[in-house]
């Protein structure tokens, strides 16, 4: 098999060794004569997977006492609703930072539930940067404060952790989760859909502090964090296959040196691409403010839409896949998550140089 370089924003590239391991034990798990996905989620085999995935996340992220890891369904999108449903009581308001398409969606869902104050809105600046911390004037009586650490579509990432004092900080980390160390103790709740950097679609990882999980408004049972907190995400059938895949990715990540190693690699990979863009004499253009550039989702434009179309077509012929920018913004985007090998970005930038030579701007 000639493996493509998959630059998709999500579902996204996973380590080949993980895919092979999963394939190898898919039909006959641990010599039981059946697949893990055919087994009870209350059985010994699955229980071990569940416990190991949890323990690995705790270890890799250094999650302190008083927090739990939850494995939930519904994607990061479900968290847009669950967070205000659980944490935004009537009479309170929640602070949100609007850094792009995902921040905006989180805001819209919270507004369906309660009162929202937008602390900073990047819309007028076309979401080209993450605000400086000095621009964020938090409400010290807010129920919580919500940020999106990496805007997957806009290609901007947060590089300074906000301090919201006593107000619980809530973060959508879907697209930069496990790409760098995170001071979990600064957060009340962290969530991430697995399909960007941690596994297949189907499971969302939520790291929640106990006091927040215990706020239990009268909601349907699945929608209460308390349910999952008290039952270790085994109140109902969890997405067992997705969690199993996450476990394999976590084992791979730990063996590869953990989050410091991932952060180092992310810097190196992204530098290769940004250097190619910046060194192209303006042929390739990254619209994002330099200090907010994402190391995970790199966006750029070409001199014309016609050239962009040609670029994407020819890249595809070279097995450099999924480089099209999100339909809402156009242009090109390379998502370079943990599993992207250095050869991937080298092949991409070699192609960029060749394409520019063959297609001068008119
Ligand atoms: C992809 C993404 C989401 C939505 O995730 P789903 O799992 O599809 O609901 C939310 N936030 C960010 C930052 C994302 O990248």
Descriptors for this entry?
13 strands; binds pyridoxal-5'-phosphate; 362 residues; seven-stranded mixed beta sheet; alpha/beta; two-stranded parallel sheet; 10 helices; Aspartate Aminotransferase, domain 2; Aspartate Aminotransferase, domain 1
Concise summary:
With 362 residues, the chain is α/β, with parallel strands linked by helices. The chain is 36% helix and 15% strand. It folds into two domains: 16-255, 3-Layer(aba) Sandwich (Aspartate Aminotransferase, domain 2); 258-358, Aspartate Aminotransferase, domain 1 (Alpha-Beta Complex).
Largest sheet: 7 strands, mixed
Strand content: 5-15%
The CATH topology of the largest domain: Aspartate Aminotransferase, domain 2
Neighbour order of strands in the largest sheet:
2-10-9-8-5-3-4
Query: Quick one: overall form?
Result: globular
Contiguous low-pLDDT stretches (5 residues minimum) are none
Classified in CATH, the superfamily of the largest domain is Type I PLP-dependent aspartate aminotransferase-like (Major domain)
CATH architecture of the largest domain: 3-Layer(aba) Sandwich
Average of the residue pLDDT scores: 97
DSSP strand tally? 13
> Which small-molecule species are bound to the chains here?
pyridoxal-5'-phosphate
Structural class: alpha/beta
Total domain units = 2
State the order of secondary-structure elements, H for helix, E for strand. Answer: EHHEHEHEEEEEEEHHHHEHEEH
Q: Report how far the terminal alpha carbons are from each other.
A: 39 Å
Determine and state the CATH class of the largest domain. Alpha Beta
């Amino acid at each position: 098999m000639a493996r493509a370089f998959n630059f998709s924003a999500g579902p996204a590239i996973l380590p080949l060794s993980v895919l092979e391991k999963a394939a190898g034990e898919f039909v006959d798990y641990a010599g039981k004569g059946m697949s893990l996905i055919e087994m009870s989620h209350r059985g010994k085999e699955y229980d071990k997977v569940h416990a190991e995935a949890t323990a690995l996340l705790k270890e890799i992220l250094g999650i302190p006492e008083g927090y739990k890891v939850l494995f939930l369904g519904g994607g990061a999108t479900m968290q847009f609703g669950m967070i205000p449903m659980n944490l935004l009581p009537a009479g309170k308001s929640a602070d949100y930072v609007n850094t792009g398409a995902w921040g905006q969606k989180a805001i819209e869902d919270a507004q369906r539930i309660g009162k929202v104050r937008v602390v900073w809105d990047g819309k007028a600046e076309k979401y080209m940067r993450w605000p400086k911390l000095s621009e964020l004037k938090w409400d010290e009586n807010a129920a919580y404060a919500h940020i999106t650490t990496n805007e997957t579509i806009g290609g901007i990432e947060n590089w300074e952790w906000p301090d919201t004092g006593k107000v619980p900080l809530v973060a959508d980390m879907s697209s930069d989760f496990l790409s760098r160390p995170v001071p979990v103790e600064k957060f009340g709740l962290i969530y991430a859909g697995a399909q960007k950097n941690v596994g297949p679609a189907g499971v969302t990882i939520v790291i929640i502090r106990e006091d927040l999980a215990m706020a239990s408004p009268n909601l349907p049972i699945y929608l209460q964090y308390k349910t999952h907190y008290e039952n270790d995400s085994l109140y109902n059938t969890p997405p067992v296959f997705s969690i199993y895949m996450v476990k394999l990715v976590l084992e791979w990540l730990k063996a590869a040196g953990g989050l410091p190693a991932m952060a180092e690699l992310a810097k190196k990979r992204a530098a290769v691409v940004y250097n190619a863009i910046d060194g192209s004499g303006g042929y390739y253009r990254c619209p994002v403010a330099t200090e907010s550039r994402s190391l995970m989702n790199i966006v750029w434009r070409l001199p014309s839409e016609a050239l962009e179309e040609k670029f994407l077509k020819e890249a595809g012929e070279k097995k450099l896949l999924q480089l099209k920018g999100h339909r809402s913004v156009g242009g090109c985007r390379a998502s370079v998550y943990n599993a992207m090998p250095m050869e991937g970005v080298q092949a991409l930038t070699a192609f960029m140089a060749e394409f520019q030579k063959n297609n001068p701007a008119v």
